[in-house]
Design brief:
Radius of gyration: 17 Å
Number of helices: 9
Largest sheet: 5 strands, parallel
Strand order of the largest sheet: 2-3-1-4-5
Distance between the termini: 17 Å
CATH superfamily: P-loop containing nucleotide triphosphate hydrolases
Number of domains: 1
CATH topology: Rossmann fold
Helix content: 40-55%
CATH architecture: 3-Layer(aba) Sandwich
Number of strands: 5
Order of helices and strands: EHEHHHEHEHHEHH
């Protein structure tokens, strides 16, 4: 049974696949207001909070070590997933930018969001193009997309998949807009049924 909620457009794809660009395009294109939530921003925000709270007792290098060794990453990501649910239940529309690299992350999202108005969108791009984009961006470790490439779409069930190499960002956003205006979400329900 679907609970009353805001619309969630949940973009999942590797680093450099175009999720942030699609998010920005969707926010401009959609008639209703949408909030942008990024898992990268959530993790960075916790690092900033640690520095603010404990800056006199912990160095930036120690915070980088906490991040690099992923000591608190799963807890931060779980909190992020619960924020998505909370905002949705408050009736907020959200565009989520995520990289589901841990199986437990997807399982948690399925459990939390399957009865909400959440559209699960796969953002794809060929591997050689991801590598080219990483080189151009310069703000991501080279090889990050490669490490994520086989993992991120392993579950193979989406409401829609878009390819940012064969389609423009605007075309991808328009396909998503068309989907949410004409079809109810089904992917998280199907994934839950598949897991049972």
């Amino acid at each position: 049974m679907m609970i009353h909620s805001g619309t969630v457009i949940f973009l999942n794809g590797t680093s450099s696949s175009g999720k942030t660009s699609i998010s920005n395009e969707l926010i401009q294109l959609l008639e209703e207001d949408f909030i942008y939530l990024s898992v990268d921003n959530a993790i960075a925000g916790v690092n900033d909070m640690l520095m603010s709270m404990f800056g006199n007792h912990i160095s930036k290098e120690e915070i980088r070590t906490i991040e690099r060794e992923e000591i608190i990453e799963n807890s931060v990501v779980s909190l992020f997933h619960h924020y998505i649910l909370a905002f949705s239940r408050m009736g907020k529309n959200i565009v989520v930018d995520h990289v589901l690299i841990e199986p437990g992350w997807l399982e948690e999202c399925i459990q939390l969001l399957q009865h909400t108005q959440t559209y699960f969108i796969g953002v794809r791009c060929p591997f050689d193009e991801l590598e080219r984009r990483e080189q151009i961006r310069g703000d991501r470790p080279i090889g990050l997309a490669q490490a994520q490439f086989e993992i991120v779409h392993k579950h193979r069930i989406y409401d829609l998949e878009v390819n940012t190499h064969t389609n423009s960002i605007n075309d991808c956003a328009r396909m998503i807009k068309q989907l949410i205006s004409t079809h109810p979400p089904r992917a998280f329900i199907e994934l839950n049924d598949h897991n049972e």
